[in-house]
Write a structure and sequence with these properties.
Length: 64
């Protein structure tokens, strides 16, 4: 998900997105352990998206 799309969301929507991405990351980790992970790069992409969301949330809370 692009940062420009994330900036348009409210704090509540961003928090919900973060929760959803964390659940997906957890499921990908389970798939990796069981050997059923099809796209290993997806986990890295999700980690970066979570970091983007947290950065935007902190920026909005500080009023930027």
């Amino acid at each position: 998900m692009k940062a420009s799309e994330l900036y348009q969301l409210t704090l509540e929507e961003l928090a919900q997105k973060e929760t959803d991405f964390r659940k997906e990351l957890f499921n990908l980790r389970l798939q990796r352990v069981t050997g059923k992970l099809e796209n290993p790069s997806r986990a890295r992409e999700i980690r970066k998206t979570i970091a983007r969301i947290k950065t935007i949330i902190n920026g909005k809370r500080k009023g930027k």
